[in-house]
Amino acid sequence: MAINKNSNVYIIIYTIVMVVIVGALLAFLATSLKPMQDENKLKEKKNAIMKAFKAEGDFDKLVTIYRLNGTELSEVEADAQAAIFEELEKRGDLAKAEKDLPLFKYAEGDVVKYVIPLVGKGLWGDIWGYASVQPKDGNVVITGIVMDHAGETPGLGAEIATDRVQGLFVDKALYNEAEEFAVRMQKGGARNDHEVDAITGGTKTCDGVNAMLKDCISKYEAFLMAEAGAVAADTTASEVEPAEAAEPDATDAVEASEGEPAEEIVEPTNVEEK
Question: Which of 34, 136, 184, 219 is least surrounded, with the fewest CB atoms within 10 Å of its CB?
Fold first, then answer.
């Protein structure tokens, strides 16, 4: 008996069989590729943090991961670091976190930098990134920043992900003379050394960046200011050296000798031998 391929029954059965086969294949591929996808996401995060540090090399060898509570740091062991990166993926929870804050440390010689994770809201969705900061001269200076977005407008708000915009933040001190958080993207152009030019036509995204920077970095403020104070104290102490005893100079020696009476030179008397 020939199968009528034009019948409704055949079409329905054929469709069901194909859906089941394709669905099973896709599920198999998704399951098989998930470890590779997770590894790629992890590498992406590590690369972004290293870019914020402006450093090259092996992340696992150069960067130490901590959890911060107030001003107290506790190092995260290697077998527990996966949980840190999972938290970075959950941006909503990270934005609400007030304790056990993730913090990344990079040290090169006497220079110590910290990377703070950033999460916020732009015009059309999530924005996020990493800010590298360095306690310096009694303040805290941005040494690098990496930002990304879920769906900001190309050519406008999406410009926050470009090196050009991110480079504007480098060397900006976080706090002004009144110790207020002062770094921001300013519409109409920067008015002082703490501000950067906002993106023309991307005002809402820039507002989101400003809120993200202030909200996220403020959680670390007590620790950062304590570090800045410690660095300033160390710098002052190193500049103060014990005074060395001054050696007399040749001129002083001559002047001193001129002021003293000359010693009488006594010639030995010749005694004739008898």
Answer: 34
